[in-house]
Amino acid sequence: MKLGFIGLGVMGAPMAAHLVAAGHDVSGFDVHAAAGEKLAAAGGRAATSVADAVAGADVVITMLPNHPQVEEVVLAAGGVLDTAEPGALLIDMSTIRPETSIAIAEAARDKKIRVLDAPVSGGQAGAEQASLSIMVGGDAADFEAATPVFDAVGKTIVHVGPHGAGQVVKAANQLVVGGIYGLVAEAIVLLEASGVDAATGLDVLAGGLAGSRILELKRKSMVEREFAPGFRIDLHHKDMGIALAAARQADVALPLTGLVAQLVAAGRAMGYGSLDHSALLKVVEQLSGRVPAEV
Ligand code: NAD
Question: What sequence ranges are listed for the domain 6-phosphogluconate dehydrogenase NADP-binding (predicted)?
């Protein structure tokens, strides 16, 4: 297929490279020109603008930070809806608020462009290993049509409902991940303050009912205070905002999500925004007056 790929950052760059490796003709654009050059080195083409990446594409993929960037790239003059061929499929894989995904689908309908929201989980490692989990909102026929794209970058690929549903599932994912990080951080602070070796204690937790992917993958780096991202606190702060806004939209109360959102906001306010989200440990330590280890 002929693909346009917009947003070649931490996630987008390896995903675009996997699509090239799967045999697709990929034109990529990023406001940072160096990212386009990297794609060209991997066998794709560096486009000079959104319109250039989109020209003649069967499928356009966006992997951008947040809804303002998606709105600019998709809805602005010279953007995807302005320049894509009727019948083209736009797959937005960014994590953004569900209402924007729904608004984009409505705007695209008038232009006869099909749209899926398809946020991902699995982080940079998942993007590099083509093992992402992908939660997809939109029409079933469009989901089927997108299978070759999803297969090239992901392993767990599920159609979860209509437009916006993918983003709601991603919001649920992020509130669970944030909550578990907060609790693992509290467990570490309790163990250390009680004079119990945290690494040993967490080994036991990881094998019992408290076990989780986060304990499995991150307990060692958390105890050793290694907080290189990974997934940045700044991005998780955005995602907690999306989860709270979605809760308001659905008229439900999510008290734990609210609390975790405040802890993540505190981490950002304390200057940890560019650290990995496991640096929530530094926030929890400071609440108990314990001095965080230097990073
Ligand atoms: P990133 O900041 O590394 O990449 C985004 C890219 O978009 C950047 O290269 C930026 O230059 C480019 N960009 C911004 N505005 C643009 C525009 N107008 N036109 C063209 N390019 C533009 O972010 P990322 O980590 O790759 O994350 C992308 C999305 O995926 C986010 O919504 C994030 O929440 C989500 N996500 C990230 C991870 C992760 O571990 N990093 C995991 C799951 C989901």
Answer: 2-161
Structural domains in the chain plus CATH codes: 2-162 (3.40.50.720), 168-287 (1.10.1040.10)
- Atom 40 of ligand 1: nearest residue by CA position: 123
Q: DSSP letters of 219-252?
A: HHHHHTT----SSBHHHHHHHHHHHHHHHHHTT-
Mean pLDDT, 10 residues at a time, over the chain (295 residues)? 97 98 98 96 97 98 97 97 97 97 97 98 93 98 98 98 98 98 98 98 98 95 95 96 96 98 98 97 96 63
Q: Which residue owns the Cα nearest ligand 1 atom 20?
A: 30
Can you give the pLDDT at residue 274?
A: 96
Say what the pLDDT of residue 294 is. Answer: 59
Q: What pLDDT score was predicted for residue 291?
A: 78
Rounded to the nearest whole angstrom, what is the distance from the C-alpha of residue 43 to the centroid of ligand 1?
21
Residue 108 to residue 200: CA distance in whole angstroms: 54
Q: Cα 244 to the chain's mean position, in Å?
A: 17
Contact 60, 88 (CB under 8 A): yes
The set of long-range contacts for 188-195, using a CB threshold of 8 Å and a minimum separation of 24, is: 188/222, 188/223, 188/281, 188/284, 189/281, 189/284, 189/285, 189/288, 189/290, 192/290, 193/288, 193/290
